[in-house]
Design goal:
4 helices, 6 strands
Length: about 180
Amino acid sequence: MEFISRTPSWGIDLPELYFDAGTTLGENIGTYGWVIRDEGEVIRRGYGAIRRSQGNLTSHYAEFVGAIKGLQTMLDLGYDRVRVKGDNIHVLGSLERPSNWDDPQIQQGADLARRLFHSFSSIKEVQKIHRSENSEADALARDAFAIYQDSSEGAEVDPILNHSEPTPSKRRRLHNPVKSIV
């Protein structure tokens, strides 16, 4: 199933954000990965490990963290349009419209991700992709597991609760910001 935002791009090449995440059974640690591509070129990528101080860390929580980190990076770079691609239909749906989650921290993550998504002033789309098309973000999340598997030291605690949004005046609005690969 594929769904697209109500603001269609009509074939316009949009900067893309791919995101993915994973969690370990029985442990309170998860990882995420995200990749920003513009005109097919990797602009930035990132990954990390997370923990929750209270409650279970679920894959949805970790996916929202990955989406939030990637969206925030795109806004910080000055992008005003985006196509978000992921393999989790529930997280993607929460970007476009209000959603209801039983877990208050996941709800907070859904609300924050939706606010960030709607901060893009131009075209914004959401696209569900097959897991095989999300291999780069998935590999970054898996790399983070390899780094943090023996110890959760260095894992960010409650990243959704501790996220602060920049004021709009601090953002640059550009269609094609200077490209750098980190």
